[in-house]
UniProtKB/TrEMBL annotation, chain A:
Species this chain originates from: Nitrospirillum amazonense
Cited function: Cytochrome bo(3) ubiquinol terminal oxidase is the component of the aerobic respiratory chain of E.coli that predominates when cells are grown at high aeration. Has proton pump activity across the membrane in addition to electron transfer, pumping 2 protons/electron.
The family this protein is said to belong to: Belongs to the cytochrome c oxidase bacterial subunit 4 family.
Assembly: Heterooctamer of two A chains, two B chains, two C chains and two D chains.
Membrane topology note: Multi-pass membrane protein
Pfam families cross-referenced by the UniProt entry: COX4_pro
Main location: membrane
Name of the featured protein: Cytochrome bo(3) ubiquinol oxidase subunit 4
InterPro entries: Cyt_c_oxidase_su4_prok (IPR005171), Cyt_o_ubiqinol_oxidase_su4 (IPR014210), Cytochrome_c_oxidase_bac_sub4 (IPR050968)
Automatic annotation (TrEMBL), chain B:
Subunit composition and interactions: Heterooctamer of two A chains, two B chains, two C chains and two D chains.
Membrane topology summary: Multi-pass membrane protein
Record's keyword terms, sorted: Cell membrane, Electron transport, Membrane, Oxidoreductase, Transmembrane, Transmembrane helix, Transport
Protein name (record): Cytochrome bo(3) ubiquinol oxidase subunit 3
Entry similarity comment: Belongs to the cytochrome c oxidase subunit 3 family.
Lineage: Bacteria, Pseudomonadati, Pseudomonadota, Alphaproteobacteria, Rhodospirillales
Keyword Zinc found: no
Spans traversing the lipid bilayer: 38-63, 83-103, 110-129, 149-179, 191-215
Positions of the Heme-copper oxidase subunit III family profile domain: 39-217
KW DNA damage (keyword) present: no
PROSITE patterns: COX3
MF-aspect GO terms: cytochrome bo3 ubiquinol oxidase activity; cytochrome-c oxidase activity
Name of a matching Pfam family: COX3
Length: 137, 218
């Protein structure tokens, strides 16, 4: 009795005591988790199928397709994060979300920075013909 | 027992010790987080750093994607059907990895072993298809040495494939540990890290098939 009194106000998460839940409780929990995985799988299949369709069809306006594919990919990564990795916006997930946000920032800086710098260098390169002229003078 | 109750009373009604440390929020008074939470968080940080490493490979690939040096382009080399099958295999293996975690939570050995076997076979199928694709490209002369585009392609896709191969090895080790040690806490923690790793590989594959195969194959 004293043990439960001690633990309740401390707000120790439920998963810290996995072995003394009632069998009925744990079964309900498992079914709820199973549902989350199935919903995630269905959404992922839908998004993947849309991506492959959009890439192969001729119905869509071609210049818009890469943007659509990027949006679908980001959406699917979000589905994987939420339904498979269980990264949510709940208060118990603050640290995980902050770490993810920092990771996304670094990924953005690396990718966008590299593309920007390399495109700039490429644009400022002397064309090959001009390099030949340079040598002749 | 009485001591425990007295301590609870103190922490509930007396704010002085907490105020002295400047920690008044609910979570910090609960003491350190359970080990399981700390391990998962540490592994999550590792996965994010792995994703940052992949972002450098993605950036390299994006820079050199058009530099084919007169060699074969992505549109000529990639087979959309093969990529679709690979994607399906990896997605379903991610799902069965989730089933493996659920079987672990239920401490159900038969379900765990069958889910692990399905995960392994789907992952292996993915790897076999990828290696076949690589072998076919190399047989056509599309080797990593042929152009900057192919160097970037083999580095990026090969690095993901290497991760899948390591994951398969890890999965075999985990199945052996469950068979040998049973549901020991350390084994449960390792299984949790494995499932995070496997799901993260699928997230990287989503970016990979979109950028390399779907955008590059057009």
């Amino acid at each position: 009795m004293a043990e439960t009194d001690h633990h309740a106000p401390d707000g120790i998460p439920h998963d810290a005591v996995p072995l003394d839940t009632a069998p009925g409780d744990s079964r309900e929990e498992l079914l709820a988790s199973l549902k989350v995985y199935i919903v995630g799988l269905a959404l992922a299949i839908l998004l993947t199928a849309t991506s492959f369709w959009a890439a192969s069809t001729h119905v869509l306006w071609p210049p818009g397709v890469p943007i659509g594919l990027a949006v679908l990919a980001v959406a699917q990564m979000g589905v994987h994060l939420v339904f498979f990795l269980h990264i949510t916006t709940g208060p118990d997930n603050t640290n995980n979300v902050l770490a993810l946000a920092f990771g996304v920032l670094i990924v953005f800086l690396v990718v966008a920075g590299s593309l920007w710098i390399m495109a700039n260098i490429s644009a400022n390169m002397m064309p090959l013909e001009m390099m030949d002229l340079h040598h002749q003078h | 027992m009485d001591g425990g109750r007295a301590m609870t009373a103190a922490s509930l009604h007396d704010d002085a010790p907490r105020a002295a440390h400047g920690m008044r929020t609910g979570t910090s008074t609960a003491g350190p987080a359970p080990k399981r939470i700390i391990i998962a968080y540490g592994f999550w940080l590792f996965l994010l750093s792995d994703i940052v490493m992949f972002s450098a490979l993605f950036a390299t690939y994006a820079v050199v994607a058009k530099a084919t040096a007169g060699g074969p382009t992505g549109a000529e080399l990639f087979d959309p059907t093969n990529v679709a099958v690979e994607t399906a295999l990896l997605l379903f293996s991610s799902f069965s990895c989730g089933m493996m975690s659920l079987a672990m939570e239920a401490r159900h050995r038969t379900a765990f072993h069958s889910a692990a076997a399905v995960t392994f076979l789907l992952g292996l199928g993915f790897l076999v298809l990828e290696m076949r694709e690589f072998a076919g490209m190399i047989a056509q002369g599309a080797t990593p040495q042929r152009s900057a585009f192919l160097s970037g392609f083999f580095t990026l896709v090969g690095c993901h494939g290497a991760h899948v191969a390591v994951g398969l090895l890890w999965l075999v080790v985990m199945v052996a540990q469950v068979a040998d040690k049973g549901w020991r806490t350390t084994v449960l923690h390792r299984l949790m890290c494995f499932s995070l790793f496997w799901h993260a590989l699928d997230i990287i594959w989503v970016a990979l098939f979109t950028i390399v195969y779907l955008m590059g194959g057009r």
